[in-house]
Amino acid sequence: VGQNGAGKSTLIRLISGQIRPTTGHIRVFGHDPFANPEVYRLLGYCPEIDQFYERWSGRQFVIHMARLQGFSAQEAKARSEHALTTVGMIDRCDLKIGGYSKGMRQRIKLAQAIVHEPKIILLDEPLNGLDPVGRHEFMQTLNDLAQRGQAVMISSHILHEVEQLTSTILVLHRGRLLASGNLK
Question: Most buried by CB count within 10 Å: which residue of 4, 93, 104, 160?
Answer without folding.
Answer: 93
